[in-house]
Amino acid sequence: MKRKNISLTLAVLFLFALFTTAAFGAILTNDNVLSTNLKEADGTTGQNTNTGAGVKTGHIQDGAVTDSKIGGTISQNKVTGLEAALVGKSDITHNHDALYQQKYGKVTVVAQTGGDFSNPVSAMNSVAAWCGTPSATNPCLLKIMPGVYDIGATYISLAAYVDLEGSGENITKVKATCGGVQAASNATVRSLTIESDCPGGNDNWVVQNYSKANFKMENVAVIASSAYDNYCVYASGATNFEMKNVSLTASG
Question: Mind listing the pLDDT tens digit for each residue in 124-142?
Fold first, then answer.
């Protein structure tokens, strides 16, 4: 009788082991570990399958998405709605006129800091970039802010229909070494001091007007000094050359 019971017990255990192995095999097959087969969260603080901490459907643990996982190009469908969210915030669509001073058209500013140029010679040589083609219908202005601007042994070669304006005789000075300003037709120089010191045995020609028409100088001080001949203003073949409130000082 005992042998029969033992045999029956062994048979039951064998069948249980066989069933258990088959059951676990079914659960652990590829792609068959489901959240429903995992222990649920403990239910505290509102935890359930979709909320709270723990292993749950639809949840990604904090820090699980690393930099390497989001590197490279992000496709358009991943950022849908971003453009709409940024409307009114981008430089293209946002209007800064109320916050910043607007830049005037057809004017370039030479200043020691904060200007378009720091040298008036460079500014005039680049007139096409900020003025276009100067003309009677497209006049322009080169404005020099306060300070002393050393242009060396060069000239500011004016363009027709482009005025050269300082900020006042006493606060804007263009200083040259055997240089100065070359006139242009239909142009005006005003409100600054032009000074040239020309060492050695060279003539000093500070403001030159060769055959230009309708050139004007207003509220300008010209200073020429050298050991040889000095010409504050030299004009040859000029027509309608007008000077108003101009101070000329030559020494040497």
Answer: 999 999 999 999 999 999 9
Q: Against a cut of 0.90, is the pTM above it?
A: no
Q: What is the mean pLDDT of the chain?
A: 81
Short-list 127, 123, 226, 241, CA closest to 178: 226
Residue whose token pair is 């101009």:
246
- For 202, 209, 222, the CA distances from 227, given in Å and listed in that order, are 8, 23, 17
Q: Which residues pair with 141 in a beta bridge?
A: 107, 163
Q: List, in order, residues 6 or more apart from 180 with CB less than 8 Å away.
A: 155, 156, 174, 194, 196, 205, 206, 207, 208, 222
Q: Which residues contact 242 (CB under 8 A, 6 or more apart)?
A: 215, 216, 217
pLDDT at 88: 60
